[in-house]
Protein 1
Amino acid sequence: MMSRKTFYYNFMPTKAEEEAAKARNVPYQVTRTLFEVNDISPPQLHPDPNYPWLIRKAVSNCEIVNGKLVLSHNDTFDHVFRYWTLETCNHVVMGGRYPVALVDFTDEKSPRRYQSDHTFLERGLNETYILGWFDIIRNRLFNAGDEVGLFWDVRSGAFHFKMLRRGG
């Protein structure tokens, strides 16, 4: 069963937390915990076969040079984390790097699978997540503004990737 992942923010400290912060002479820090809630309307397990690319974005020069594709918080939580276990999501949210496989469907007749130290998902800055895609960068020519699409494929347990169109 799939479940949505969301954060619970603790804005109200307990008396002990309040006193501990006061003793250290620092303000109380709001904490958050990742937890699961059941999907009222679970997503389709099989996206539209004609256009399954749920996450679409124009790549930047920085993402090409660094081999790290920046994914938004919403895209990651809505289209990836809902299929993963809470333990795996917590690992990534807490700053861990999780190895993943990427399957490049740009050439639909011969998709290519990538899985190495360069294919991973990790937490980025400002509530973003980073998908390591250096192996694809090494084998394809990308330019800033190219549009790529991806989605997490539940059946294969891998990100499916495709160059959708060349940028201007």
Protein 2
Amino acid sequence: MGGCASSTSDSKSGKAVAGGSSRIRRSSATAKVVHIDGRVQEFSQPIQAKNIISQDPNCFLCSSESMSIGTCVPQVPDDEELQPGTIYFLMPLSQSHKPLSLPDLCSLAIKASSGLRKDSVNLSSSNSKLILR
């Protein structure tokens, strides 16, 4: 089987960045939440993380911008507003203290790509890079 990740160098940090070859146009006017089942919820109005988490209390919300291989994914604080142009993932609480692996990242990228394909979102923009360490 082929690999599921590609990388390019981030010009600011010089680190490898996942998804470098994804060229899907991004809609930055909304915050997007990718649910465990792959469903995508889009928010054009401000909304706090706790409003998303309350739909599934066995999950936590994380930002695609804070995901790094080999580190635990930081949870978005309950009172934080989701940022337009950012992709968020709803993940099971059981994953909250487990370091993110490359297969985990690949799975999330596939899920996001499938769910967001209809919405024409740019997974390689500077606002949604996943940094490989």
